[in-house]
Amino acid sequence: MNQETILVVEDNDVLREGLSAMLEIEGFTVFAAENGRAALDRMTFLFPDLILSDIAMPEMDGYGFFRAVRDRPEWLSIPFLFLTARGEREDVIAGKEMGAEDYLIKPITREELLAAVSARLSRSQQLRVAQLQQAYEASMMVLANAVEARAQLPPGHIERVLAYSLVIAEQLGWRGKRLEALRFGAILHDVGKLLISEVTLCRPGPLSASEWTEMRQHPRTGAEIIRDIPALAQAIPIIFSHHERWDGRGYPQNLAGEVIPEGARIVALADALDAMTTPRPYRAAISLQEAGAEILRNSASQFDPAVVMAFQRAWEAGKIIPDSK
After folding, report:
1. Neighbouring C-beta atoms of residue 43, cutoff 10 Å
2. Contacting residues for 218 by C-beta, under 8 A, at least 6 apart
3. Do the beta carbons of residue 320 and residue 274 sit within 8 Å?
4. Where are the domains of the chain?
5. What does the pLDDT profile of the chain (325 residues) look like in tens digits?
């Protein structure tokens, strides 16, 4: 059964009832109005998932109703379909130029109506998911930047590690969901530093033994922070293992080689690259060329050789940009 709500706006009583019945049989919840003015009154207490509106109506026609809907920011995302007996080319162009999602000509069959409604609702759902994804990522970026500020990292560290990680992954042929998990892992790779003491985080010189023990816990702590968030589940191995080394001398588990999650191997290199090419309280930055040479020297020791080769291809293609954000 469908859960979506549709607002049908039509001045012809018989047609309005017929359209409503066809949609209700398919499980849609339908509300109806006889013209644009009455529809706006309905929308005072109703937020439809889709609007199906006639054009030629008394008091307020479909064009006026459409403009009134689009003038309200909270209604901008509602799909709007014109349904009318007007078949002139000028009317079709006018409706589409206004931004309506579709323009259906009466008489319309049940199959045509349902196909148009289903297609627009599906597209609307895709857009809502994309918008939520963007909002979710923006929220994570705010959190990550708070960690960055607390740890006194150079501004833009998160954005650069994310950018480096993505271009390396693309060289390795990553697509779709794998890139999405990598995005989340790169953004939140240092989230565990939220629970590291400021004395340890901001130490201008070498850490003491106890401080170093505390610092080495941040990958594990970061994974624990997000463990109950289902949407971030695929990012947990990246966060947990981004300080492991190919030769097994990393932390927190001393994993080695391909046992280390591939996403973590990518973020490890991206994080190291940014650490080398930006100034830190305890040392000056080095050039991208020097950092690149250091990464090549540490292939098969600190870094996965395949990830190093992908980094080198991205570098040679001009895609490794130190100030990338």
Report:
1. 21
2. 190, 192, 193, 195, 196
3. no
4. 5-125, 151-316
5. 467 899 999 999 999 999 999 999 989 999 999 999 999 999 998 899 999 999 889 999 999 999 999 898 888 888 898 887 766 666 666 666 666 667 777 878 888 888 888 888 887 776 766 666 676 677 777 778 777 777 777 788 999 999 999 999 999 999 888 898 999 999 999 999 988 888 887 777 788 889 889 989 999 999 998 888 888 888 999 999 999 999 999 999 999 999 999 999 999 999 999 999 998 766 788 999 999 999 999 999 999 999 999 999 999 999 998 764 4
Name the one residue in this structure whose structure tokens are 């047609």: 15
Tell me which fold the domain 5-125 belongs to: Rossmann fold (3.40.50)
Say which DSSP state 105 is in: E
- Alpha carbons 90 and 88: distance in angstroms, whole number: 5
Report residue 154 as tokens.
């150079």
Render 256-303 in DSSP notation, one character per residue. Answer: -GGGS-HHHHHHHHHHHHHHHHS-BTTB----HHHHHHHHHHTBTTTB
Q: For residue 106, is it left (φ>0), alpha (ψ between -120 and 50) or beta?
A: beta
| Tokens read off for 238 | 């990246």
pTM score, whole prediction: 0.64
Report how far apart, in Å, the C-alpha atoms of 259 and of each of 174, 184, 264, 265, 306 are.
19, 21, 10, 10, 14
Contact 185, 235 (CB under 8 A): yes
In angstroms, rounded to a whole number, what is the distance separating the alpha carbons of residues 52 and 50?
7
3-class state of residue 76 by DSSP = coil
Cis peptide bond upstream of 252, omega within 30: yes
Asked if 160 and 322 touch (Cβ cutoff 8 Å), the reply is: yes
Fold designation for 151-316: Hypothetical protein af1432 (1.10.3210)
CA–CA distance, 76 with 214 (Å, rounded to integer): 49
Contact 36, 64 (CB under 8 A): yes
